[in-house]
Design a protein that fits this description.
The protein has helices at residues 2-9, 67-73, 109-115; strands at residues 12-16, 27-30, 40-48, 59-66, 76-84, 98-106. By secondary structure, it is an alpha+beta fold. The longest helix has 8 residues, at 2-9. The termini are far apart. It comes from Actinotalea soli. This is DUF779 domain-containing protein.
Length: 120
C-alpha cells in the first residue's frame, strides 16, 4: 500500500496524534502536508524495500507521534499494520478500503532499558 500511495502522491509521512476519533489511527499524508512542531516526536522511519529487486532502491516513510502520546507509549513496542476497513477521512489510504492500525505490546525489561535509559 505504501508503494501505491507513494506512486500516487510522492513522498509520504505517517503521524499518530493520540486524539479521539480519526486521531486515534495512524494518518498517512504527503510528506510536508502536516505541519510538525515541538509537540511532535520522530519515532523513526518505516523502511519499504524495492519490490522485486534485491538491490533496487526502496524508500522510507517517516513516522511521527504527538509528544503527549509518546510519553504515554514510550514503554511499548509499536507495529504499523494495514487492515481491511474504512480509513480515516484525511488519510491517503482511506479510498482504498483499508486503514492503518497501530498495534502495541509492552517492552521487555531489556528492551525498555536499552531504549529508555535512566536519566534519558
Amino acid at each position: 500500500m505504501l508503494r501505491q500511495l507513494r506512486d500516487q502522491h510522492g513522498a509520504l509521512m505517517i503521524h499518530q496524534s493520540g486524539g479521539c476519533c480519526d486521531g486515534s489511527s495512524p494518518m498517512c499524508y504527503p510528506d510536508g502536508d502536516l505541519i510538525l512542531g515541538d509537540a511532535d516526536v520522530h519515532l523513526g522511519d518505516l523502511r519499504v524495500e524495492a519490490e522485486g529487486e534485491a538491490d533496487g532502491e526502496g524508500f522510507v516513510v517517516p513516522m511521527w507521534m504527538s509528544r503527549a502520546q509518546f510519553e504515554y507509549w514510550r514503554h511499548t513496542h509499536l507495529t504499523v499494520d494495514l487492515v481491511p476497513g474504512r480509513g480515516a477521512g484525511f488519510s491517503l489510504e482511506a479510498p482504498e478500503g483499508v486503514r492503518f492500525l497501530l498495534r502495541s505490546r509492552l517492552l521487555s525489561d531489556e528492551e525498555d532499558a536499552a531504549l529508555n535509559p535512566v536519566g534519558g
